Amino acid sequence: MDPRRKDYLATEAIYSGNSLRIGDEFVMHDWERPLIRRMVEDLKLTPDDRLLEIGFGMGISASILQEFRPASHTIVEPHPQVLLQAERWKSARVNVQLHPGYWQQLDTGTQRYSAIFFDPYADDMEAVDDENLRFLQFAAQSLLADDGRLALFCIRPLLPLEYQRVMFEHYRRVEISSVKVAPRDTANPTADLDGHMISVVLHK
Ligand SMILES: C[S@@+](CC[C@H](N)C(=O)[O-])C[C@H]1O[C@@H](n2cnc3c(N)ncnc32)[C@H](O)[C@@H]1O
């Protein structure tokens, strides 16, 4: 989400057992779990990793990422109600830092991460693509250590050409694997592809 969209933070976050909506929009749904798990597995975390996660949502990825016990796990999240959930989730964990705000507001300094899990939210496809492409470039230039890896949540079930251009300009390797999902309640991004989405991991 673009930080200039002031309405986002004031819109109510509604957690049900299997989804998170912000206002009327589904921001996360439990059907995405197999894709999230595969993305985390493809990131191949080790206990030496300094991990940055963008977007807490329902904490599904955060919990799976924690199974790999990274040395540190920093989570960037702007929405105040989502942050409250993240605070509760964090309470029993020692290696997690919450960073309130948007990734676009990160003060990069000299801090570098060895692994990034990127799964924010925007409410139209043009904004999603714009944000993804900006982040891919920003992460390569200002966040990732050399040899670092980045898992990108890709709502598009095939990788658009523009993504490939940015990826191959800034990363040395792009790993894509196919994941079967069963969307329900939300729009179905896999309608033409028989339930397949892609897990994308980039290597700097
Ligand atoms: C799709 S959800 C994340 C789902 C999460 N990976 C999970 O497994 O539950 C997106 C989250 O990103 C947050 N978000 C939206 N725009 C953001 C931004 N620019 N920077 C950081 N977080 C953002 C939203 O508030 C929301 O909590």
Automatic annotation (TrEMBL):
GO terms for molecular function: methyltransferase activity. InterPro entries: RMT2/GAMT_Mtase (IPR051038), SAM-dependent_MTases_sf (IPR029063). One of its GO terms (biological process) is methylation. SUPFAM superfamilies: S-adenosyl-L-methionine-dependent methyltransferases. Keywords: Methyltransferase, Transferase. Signal peptide: none annotated. This is Class I SAM-dependent methyltransferase. It comes from Pseudomonas oryziphila.
